[in-house]
From TrEMBL:
<dbReference type="InterPro" id="IPR017443">
    <property type="entry name" value="RuBisCO_lsu_fd_N"/>
</dbReference>
<dbReference type="Pfam" id="PF02788">
    <property type="entry name" value="RuBisCO_large_N"/>
</dbReference>
<dbReference type="InterPro" id="IPR033966">
    <property type="entry name" value="RuBisCO"/>
</dbReference>
<dbReference type="GO" id="GO:0015977">
    <property type="term" value="P:carbon fixation"/>
</dbReference>
<dbReference type="InterPro" id="IPR000685">
    <property type="entry name" value="RuBisCO_lsu_C"/>
</dbReference>
<feature type="domain" description="Ribulose bisphosphate carboxylase large subunit C-terminal">
    <location>
        <begin position="135"/>
        <end position="349"/>
    </location>
</feature>
<feature type="domain" description="Ribulose bisphosphate carboxylase large subunit ferrodoxin-like N-terminal">
    <location>
        <begin position="19"/>
        <end position="122"/>
    </location>
</feature>
<dbReference type="InterPro" id="IPR036422">
    <property type="entry name" value="RuBisCO_lsu_N_sf"/>
</dbReference>
<dbReference type="GO" id="GO:0000287">
    <property type="term" value="F:magnesium ion binding"/>
</dbReference>
<keyword id="KW-0460">Magnesium</keyword>
<dbReference type="InterPro" id="IPR036376">
    <property type="entry name" value="RuBisCO_lsu_C_sf"/>
</dbReference>
<dbReference type="GO" id="GO:0016984">
    <property type="term" value="F:ribulose-bisphosphate carboxylase activity"/>
</dbReference>
<comment type="similarity">
    <text>Belongs to the RuBisCO large chain family.</text>
</comment>
<feature type="domain" description="Ribulose bisphosphate carboxylase large subunit C-terminal">
    <location>
        <begin position="388"/>
        <end position="473"/>
    </location>
</feature>
<dbReference type="InterPro" id="IPR020878">
    <property type="entry name" value="RuBisCo_large_chain_AS"/>
</dbReference>
<protein>
    <submittedName>
        <fullName>Ribulose 1,5-bisphosphate carboxylase</fullName>
    </submittedName>
</protein>
<dbReference type="Pfam" id="PF00016">
    <property type="entry name" value="RuBisCO_large"/>
</dbReference>
Amino acid sequence: MQEQYLHLNDKEVFNGEFMLAVFKMVPYGDIEIEDVATEVAAESSTGSNLKVGTMTGYSQSVDARVYKIDKEKNLVYIAYPWVMFDRGGNVQNIMTFIAGNIFGMAELRECKLLDVWFPSQMLDQYDGPSVTLDDMRGYLQNFDRPVLGSIIKPKIGLTSTEYAEVCYDFWVGGGDFVKNDEPQADQNFSPFQKMVVSVREAMDRAEEATGHTKVHSFNVSASDFDTMIKRADYISSIMKPGSYAFLVDGITSGWTAVQTIRRHYPNVFLHFHRAGHGAFTRAENPIGYSVLVLSKFARLAGASGIHTGTAGVGKMAGDVKDDITAAQGILRLRAKGHYFDQCWSEIPESDMDMIAEVKKEEELWASGARGIAQSRARGLDTFLERKMSWRVISKTAPIISGGLNPVLLPQFLDVIGTIDFITTMGGGVHSHPSGTKAGATAVVQSYEAWKAEVSLEEYAKEHKELDEAIKFFNKHGTQAHRVDNSAVYHNEDAI
Ligand code: CAP
Ligand code: MG
Ligand code: MG
């Protein structure tokens, strides 16, 4: 037991100088949870496994503090003086502290970081998103439905021109947004620059044909930052402003890559793909962190959008409550987490207009996805951030993929409770019996049916692409094996 890190019932931790974290911890054998809690606090802040003689008065002031232990649920609450973190808003450094060595500690059988809370004084140190879904909506002139997107499949292997043709088909079918698949980079069969030029050409044709603007998200993840920046600059030189996003594989290329692109290109939508997150977030993994924690740090780092999972509707494993809490946690100004209520801005009592706007936003959220869609259709501009942008850590959009298809979209809308997200369907579009264009049209028709509160089957009577989709996906759609971990994700202990 390292006493110096044990501060049970310490009220100082709520004074705005501490980032709070809650872990589920299960020690091996008969090690006491207090012991392992203080070891984790030491290892994730100033200490080691032994008390060192080199400690100073000041160094102890930046010790992490175990301020609450719930023995029944194996929950350990730790407060981190945020002054301990690298100055200049560096998320990589925080993750090194609280999701670093502690995952290797021999005493721990389980160590899952479930939720974090940032005091508003800390938020000012971090970038947050500069371009948001609201900006993309403005470019697309699409305000009252999700941004309907696709991922080009096969994942890789198409030539640049073949790739661009599939983009064209999706866009003329009515889709808004196409992304590279997460491993698409600069391969022999699809040289990066040729792919970009081909996409621009296909986008021009599709905009000509449909009269609608389109967006493409290009993967700029690469071997080194210089190459990332070279690729990003090339895209910016070929594509129209607003018509492109930069996709970063945030787990495999890292937080520094995410923040480098955020800081170099503050005018471009930053798309955080989370390939590899399952090693940390899957409900059955005892060591790691929740989707909510990953998503909150992505917002802090400045991602305009991050994949948050299909909340049990699609192909990937994932805890329904974790996916939903994560999606709402990064979209809303103030949202309940698993254990902490996070507000992404200081809301001074005197700031009556902000308080009024926040109230309006809350009421809108209470009306669910359909209520939000109807209010938007009436032209009600409820983009709180647009009004308050200088005061808040702006919203990060949930990006939803993973096995979604036109038949599953309505179900997902009702589960997630908002229309403010980007869907990206790969197999769910390109396996449509009549091809990609029909697949895109089926997605649009599925949303139209949901919005009109008509069953898909009913709507399909007059819409053949949807009719074919229903027949096909009812036979071939997949539902992944589900692990229900909701017992861990509850909110009795909100801060
Ligand atoms: C989806 C996808 C996405 C993952 C990401 C894929 O393709 O492109 O990268 O779903 O998962 O490569 O599998 P499909 P998440 O639409 O064909 O399933 O969004 O959960 O991070
Ligand atoms: Mg830091
Ligand atoms: Mg993919």
